[in-house]
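Continuing from the previous page...

OK, I double-checked the sequence for Parallel beta helix pectate lyase-like protein against my notes and this is the correct one:
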Amino acid sequence: MSSLYPSTRRIARAFGTLMLLFAGHAAAYVSVGSGCQYNDLQAAIDAQSTTGTYELHVRAGYVSGPISYNNKSIWIFGGYPSCDAPSPIPYTGLNFSDLSEIDGSRNSGRPAISVSGNSRLALHNFNVHGADNGSGNGGGIAYNGSGDHSFLAIASSIINNNKAGRGAGVFYRSTSNNALMSLEDYSWIESNTASISGGGIRLEGTVHLTALGNPASIDNNVANPNSSDGSGGGLQMRDNTTANIGSPGNSGFAYINVNKARVGGGVSVENNAVLNLYTAVPGQLARIENNQAAAGAGVYLSGEGGAPTFCMVGGGINFNATTVGGNGSAIQVNGGNAHVYADDIASACPGTLDGFANCTAGQPCNTITNNVSDRQNTATININEGSSAGVYLRHVLLASNFGGNLMYSSTSTDPQLSDCVITGNDFANSLVTTAHATLGVVQCSIAGNHLASGVKVFRESGTVFSLYDSIIWEPQNPTLGGSGHSVRDVIASDAGEWNPADFVQFFNAFNADPLFVNAGAGDLHLQDGSPAVDASPTGTQYDLDNHPRGIDVVQAAGSPNLGLFDLGAYEVQHIDVSIPVTFPPVETFDELGPAGTLPANWQNVSSHPESVWVLANDQVDSGMYSAFAPDARNANDATLTTTPFHVVHGGQVSFRQRVGLEAADNVTAYDGARLEIQIGNDTEFREVTEAGGQIVQGGYDHVIAQGVGNALPGAGVWSGDVPYSSVLVALPHAANGQDVKLRWRVVTDQNNGWAGYWLDSIQVAPDDGQTDPDDNIFQNGFDP
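Thanks. Re-ran it with the corrected sequence; updated structure tokens here:
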């Protein structure tokens, strides 16, 4: 029973009041199996009342036929080694014999598990298999809920090899308030077959699914491709259902993987349903891969009679394929007000993304790669119908796809691409073909694609394009044709042939080689000295690597130097070393005001790209500027690290700080700041007192709380609401005669934030008189 508790806490965070369901969870239980209180699972269920919540402990290896109940709340936990064992045998994904079983083949023509009315079910450590419900609803589990707080949770269980008309693995219908479903760790929905639709899972009504299990998968399910419906090989969503999918999958394989259908091989999103695909484990995208369908092999949206939404924030649609003659190998949009979003911030998606983890610096936030469709009039992303449909893709890598086009729009919708890389694709036609629409391309890098000879990169049919702050470098193909387009701050391989009179807007378009690192290998980062560096006065906030934009750098001879923002998807991060470096070793953050950056060669790292250290002028100790780290509203670890400097005997550092970090009281903190040091050849940073130093004045005043998602539980920190005050630190004896780095570290929990942490007036003493220019990390001023 204890292994279910993490799932309970996770769900409660997502849905708030759901914990009330568990408040009446009785300590007593009923045992089922040989020698236990009940030999028969159905008999044990029948004996329970329709009031209260009941817990059944089922012995490992026990096999039951199909079960059913109405208007009851029952937790069915299998895998117990004996009738009175305190906990089940932990399921590792391999020890199948330790599971309990429900074998649907023992009574064919019905679901293996039938739940109805005002009921709830938690299933743990079970294998549910072998059911054949013909053309009916639900093979493994059929859940028809009608009461408030309908609830289905599956953990450490396999739902496999079941058949039904709809929802062969799981069918869940509920129109009640707060109808919830959760797929937890070691939950497998696999190898189920639907004769009509919903091979793995079908959701109807108002059900809200959260899938964060790790490992877990919806794998190898089929919705009959020959059916007139045939929707949703892995998952079919109808009505007003929602699915929050953040699971990274299983052993490197995608969460929704190798499913087949007529439409929506991975997922079919219909009516007013909402699919959110996002990262819940840092650095591991939630992915839909290796699925197959005639339309929408990855994701299919049908907006007829509604406005379905697919939102991706840390997700991937990769390696999917359409059948012969099919379309939309990654995404197919059909009709109505269907909308597709890709972005790097959770607020881009509808609702709350439980367990959301920010995109990781150094890798794309979203990927649409290696999807395959026919060579002719097909597309990786096909917008087929719907005058109000929309596709808005930001922070996305679109690479190594194969077919007719990358994107084809036959509607009046206006698709948009931003902060994107398009490379390594192989298409028989143009990259993008639109009709009756305006395509917007902002801060994208497009190069290294194989297109049919002579076709335009962007092909219009009664439409125009807006290209801003981008690089389109396809020397074998014209970028665009016709007239009425808008271009601003663009590098294009054929820009020298453009006639400004043909454009509605034409500014700063040129054809200088952008100097990619390696376009042939798909690396479209910019080399130092690229003419795309600092070539625009405007830009987005973060690049495709989730690094900040607007970084001023030293310009190569002949580069335009028209602003702080680089063209294309990536921003060169080398700070302009022409910013003055002065001595003595004092940093007041004042001389950097004109540049708007922190000191040259200081390292500024954050696990959340929107909560990095910045130069601030709202709270200062002296002069005009200070360094500031915001108190993030989610788990974050932001560090500001000096360049190395030499320490002589008796070295000290002093600084002034303004603290506005969330604390529970005068002792316990949720968020906090501390000072760390790296000495000589050490590879790790240590907290300065743990390294042998002493905080002589202004020591830590709080301790980080346990269990709040902060990276440093139990650590001493500065926290609370404290005006500017002085801190004096005697550096460790081990630092004498060594080069050291100092690191100010601000760590926050996963919930609310306050204001932040300001740092100013840093001074190191004594000065050894031997500091070379590289050691001059503490600089006077940042003031203009």
